[in-house]
Amino acid sequence: MSIPLMMLVWLFALGFGYTSGSWRGLQKRDAWIVCTLLLLSLALTVGIAINPQLPNPTEWVEQALSPLKPLLEPVN
Amino acid sequence: MRHLIRVIAAIATVTLLTGCWDRIEVNDIAIILGAGIDQEKNNRVKLSVEIFLPSPGGNEAGDGQEQMDSQNKNGNILVSSATGTSMADAMSNLQERLSRRLYWGHNNVYVFGKERAERGFNDDLDFFLRYVRARERTNIYVTQGRAIEVMGVIPRLDQNLMEALTELSKTEVSIDVDLKKVMEQIVETPEQTYTVPYILTSAVMSEKKHLRNANVPYFKGLTIFKKGQMIGSLNNELTHGYFWITNQIKPSTILTATVAKEETIAVHLTMSKSKLRPKIDGSGKWTMDLLIECEGNLIQNASQLDYSKPEQIMQMEVLFEQMIKDKVDKSLNMIQQKYKSDIVGYSKLFRRKYPKQWAIAKSSWSETFQKIETNTEVNIQIRRPGALVKQINNIPME
Amino acid sequence: MLNGKISSVQLAVIMFQFVLSSTVLLMPSITTRLSEKDMWLTPLLGMGLGFLVVWLAYKLFKLSPEGSIVRLMESLFGTFLGKIVSILFILFQFHIVAISTRDYAEFIESNFFLETPIVVIIGTMLILCGWAVRRGFEVIARTGQIFVPIITLFTVLILILLIPELNPLHLLPFMERGAGPLLQGSLVVDGWFSQLLLAVYIFPLVRDQDNIRKWGFWCVIGITFVMLASNLAVFMLVGESAGYYTYPVLMAARYIAYAEFFEHLEAIVMMVWVLGEYIKISVYYYVITRGISDTFRLKKPEVIVMPVGLLLLFVCFWVGPDFQTVSSFIANTGTSYILIGFVLFPLLLCILAVIRGWFKGLGTSTK
Known about the structure:
The complex is a heterotrimer of chains A (76), B (398) and C (367). Chain A is mostly helical. Chain A has helices at 3-19, 28-50, 57-64. Chain A has a domain at 1-10 and 26-50. The longest helix of chain B is centred in the last third of the chain and has 30 residues, at 310-339. Chain B starts with a helix and ends in a 14-residue tail after the last strand. Chain B has 398 residues and is α/β, with parallel strands linked by helices. Chain A binds chain C through residues 1-2, 5-6, 9, 13, 16-17, 20, 22-23, 26-27, 29-30, 33-34, 37-38, 40-41, 44-45, 47-48, 52-54, 56-59, 61-62, 65-66, 68-69, 71-75, and chain C through 33-34, 95, 99, 117-119, 123, 177, 180-181, 184, 187-188, 292, 296-300, 302-304, 306-308, 310-311, 313-315, 317-321, 325-326, 329, 331-333, 335-337. Chain C: Its main location: membrane. Chain C: It is a multi-pass membrane protein. Chain C: Belongs to the amino acid-polyamine-organocation (APC) superfamily. Spore germination protein (SGP) (TC 2.A.3.9) family.
């Protein structure tokens, strides 16, 4: 995914947030969650921009569950 | 202000519906009506395509020996070709020569040159099956000469080559084999044995100084493939026998039997059914029972046998039964002994009925196949005499 | 946003489409590789797990205080640990839906829109689903009511148009290799059926809760039936070569050519797929939003819809660098992963809750 596209996505997202009436008058707790989610997205964006082959959860799960792999290999 | 931005954003998203990135205008595409694949030197492959240009008018002068051009009532047909180290490479080289994008969506025909078929076209099949723009329902043919010569044929009776071949496939002379069927056979038969219709181009016919219409493609029989390569072919007669075995005889086939010297009877088939029954008896011998039942109407009686007498009808039927049996035996002999390829589907039948024995014999199927004996039994009924009650030969001359 | 009311029929319809969306397209290829000629039977065996999961979801719903499974986790593990468990479960759901969405996008991208950037395909779908989620589950249920009959109708149409091309003899010999390969194939189908567990987040919204079990039963039957029909159609069409095509159902739809008129029907497959995926992604999206909202006791859940969507978009990219990782994951480890998350874990919760119930019962009776 290219960098201009990612910036476009962020622009869209933040633009929506700005124009959306529901983001005003947020309670502290809600605001915290929103900010955490946005920060996570930012972290991922930066991560993918720097390294498209970022270690991903699919890999981690594959490694963790590798003992179960033979169960589903074709019998051939 | 907020609402205005939202409205603008909503309208802006509608532009995404146009699929901007993938748009191709109709007059920017080159519709492929048939693709020919030939073997070139140095292990290269030549892809030739017959292109239909949707806008008619104006004869385009062909430049270079690789572009043949002719005008048809409904538009221009152009043949263009390019070589490459593989099909995909050839296609991209071909695209470089054309100002329009190649569009495979309407293609119905792949013609392989004989040399390419003998070398083996599994690589090309990989391209055609894997490329998402090429369809699986396209028919495959092998031509005796070079495919590019077939591409240039403009048939008199049909609009273009693709239609001519597809319509010809629907007649009783041949069958149509498409990519899906070939893929099925490759996966399911033990040595990738399958058949592909064999066609001739006009050039070959006119070389023999035949007086036929020079612009029609002919069927010459079926080619036999084994392990991805063409190993031989069956001529029209043997193909007919093959159809009897595999229940592919189409109605409106005409059968002729010889009663005596210069005396023949002809029957027009209305129904035919062949059943193959596999059998492995106690001693481990593999046999196949072939039961053929067919019905037909008499269409020509040039013999002394009289249809109005029941015992002579029996005689006629016996003649036909013997004829069919001979045809079947001849074809089987060729397929089993000379080519040793199971194109008649015996493997599948044995697998369904005797899976365990088949699993053992699978790895050396050629040998087992050679030894399978077929017991043929034919039963034909000649139902109607047509419009004439007695044959003309029997009308007394006075 | 989280308080709409739906009927149990609507829930059944939504869950029916939710499970079918990805299976009909991907399943024939994977199950043919594992079970070969017996792949058509796999949905029948998977049906058993479907019933188990529906029962499990209902039981968990009944055991949860205030009908929220998050509260159940908190009461079982303590407030802090319970929240952690809930967050982990939500992360698991993030992973699964990202893989699902990525799969959908790859299908559309590689077959139809070769040059469009994937972010457009995923982004537009997420915007649509986000909008539906923001308006509440009632919206999703009602759009589902409109779309699901259309989807089912067209799927059935394609299957019927294929009938002349089908060869039932492909199905023989039956059980050629015994039961082992069949069980492997049905494990994969089990994985898909297990997603029915997400209904536990939606049960609180159902008006007529007594009918849930009845409609849950019919939902599973319906899913099994459609899976069976499409598996049979695909296998009778192409035989064992189904294992070699990435999308056998698409290939089958492309193969239809009726009287030279009904041709090129793959556009129908795309339409059906997009509508179905919309429902699937909306349900997951709603479940995740509800999970986060319940865990953190948010006052205004609408606010997090957009951040969740944004995060989901990036997770879709993070989840695998290319199609092959995702695809081979689904075929093998993914099944175990999803079974652990949607069957074993909820089963554990259920057992713990029941045991705790006994202890409480013992406690009160000895008093």
